[in-house]
Design goal:
Layout: E1 3-9, H1 14-24, E2 30-37, H2 44-50, E3 55-57, H3 66-79, E4 84-87, H4 96-101, E5 106-110, H5 122-129, E6 133-140, E7 150-157, H6 164-187, E8 191-193, E9 204-206
Parallel strand pairs: 1-2, 1-4, 2-3, 4-5
Antiparallel strand pairs: 5-6, 6-7, 8-9
Helix pairs in contact: 1-6, 5-6
The structure holds 5-O-phosphono-beta-D-ribofuranosylamine.
């Protein structure tokens, strides 16, 4: 059964573009049912429209709280038949309102090897710190900021000559590849998350492909 995806964006939407391309050429067994952006000027909206995917702009400024904003997003996602939610360059912290509506079914892509460099501009954090290896992480979203159970990571060498832009460009290519790969595993039912255990992090297992 194809995954029914909702993709949340705030910007250029190149990760959304990677998902749409993989769906279009049959590399990902999924349907993007809705793209939601909290910003009307997000470049990703054009990518969705070009792929005939319904879009909704839901501005966080129109709601009195993060919870109220999430409520509006959940309503839109539910009406579109979304089963799994992908945060792809989405710059808002989601609340238990969204996480509860899509229990263990909200996935995020972060441009660093978590737990290193959570939060905004992880690429600049890595360059500033002087790390020699960074990368990207696909993880389940929990109420924290970039703290949810890790599904997969991909490493990228950081060159002393790198600046934020050159590292971000190299990271993006890896993000696109990793995100589509993980969503493929989810579509195959291979991604299992441990049940909650008191005081312990939940870990993720990716089962071997059948056959
Ligand atoms: C990506 O590095 C993503 O990980 C980060 O924002 C950058 C742009 O993402 N959150 P996209 O092009 O909007 O998908």
């Amino acid at each position: 059964m194809p995954l029914d995806l909702g993709v949340l964006i705030s910007g250029s939407g190149t990760n959304l573009g990677a998902i749409l391309a993989a769906v279009a050429d049959g590399r990902l067994d999924a349907r993007v049912r809705l793209v939601v952006s909290n910003r009307a000027d997000a470049g990703g909206l054009e990518k969705a429209r070009a792929a005939n995917v319904p879009v909704r702009v839901i501005s966080h400024r129109d709601y009195p709280s993060r919870e109220a904003f999430d409520g509006a997003v959940v309503t839109a996602l539910r009406e579109a038949g979304v089963e799994w939610v992908v945060l792809a360059g989405f710059m808002r912290v989601v609340t238990p309102v969204l996480l509860g509506a899509f229990q263990d079914r909200v996935i995020n892509i972060h441009p660093a090897l978590l737990p290193a460099f959570p939060g905004v501009d992880a690429q600049a954090q890595a360059v500033e710190y002087g790390v020699r290896v960074s990368g990207c992480t696909v993880h389940f979203v929990d109420p924290g900021v970039d703290t949810g159970p890790i599904i997969a990571q991909s490493a990228v060498e950081v060159d002393p000559e790198d600046d934020r832009e050159s590292l971000a460009r190299r990271l993006l290519a890896k993000e696109h590849e990793l995100l589509v790969r993980v969503l493929g595993w989810v579509a195959e039912g291979r991604v299992e998350i441990e049940p909650p255990r008191e005081g312990a992090r939940r870990r993720v297992r990716v089962k071997r492909a059948p056959g």
